[in-house]
Amino acid sequence: MRKILIAAFVANLILTAVSLAVLPDQVAIHFGGGGAPDSWASKEFNASIFLVLEAPFFLLFYFAHLMTRGTPGKFLNIPNKDYWLEATNRAVLERRFGNFMAEFGVAIFVFFFCISLLALQANLNEPVRLNVTAVMVVLLTFIIYTLLWLVRLLQGLRVPPSAG
Q1: Domains of the chain: which residue ranges?
Q2: Can you give the pTM of this predicted structure?
Q3: Which residues of 33-69 are buried (b: 16+ CB within 10 A; e: fewer)?
């Protein structure tokens, strides 16, 4: 899953590079009601938003498994904490948590990619206008995925029946 996370992050990097190559010097960076632009900036500033927001997200999701390794239990808030923080279960927790977080990181970067692609498309339109319907579909899909992911995460951190 971490290889897919890297690929999703790299896809966003490539989209950012393409955006720098094809966008005009000034681009809409925020859109109001009906998809009309209401804030403008240089395309370089627009690209820098990627580094400021997405690079830390990548690091967080890529190295999330390390959060469970040496963190004292009082700083971890996970279901069935007593079970998962036993020395014999920590390795399984690290692997499961890392996989779940990498998976969610992929979803985040797919979401970012879709929104960035829609913003690129909007800035190439004349007049500049964001496809609000497409944004809502992407957002709703991401919210539904997030809810399903959360249910799976909670199920994945249940105490196994063989342990009880």
Answers
A1: 2-21+35-163
A2: 0.90
A3: eebebeeeeebeebbeebeeebeeebeebbebbeebe
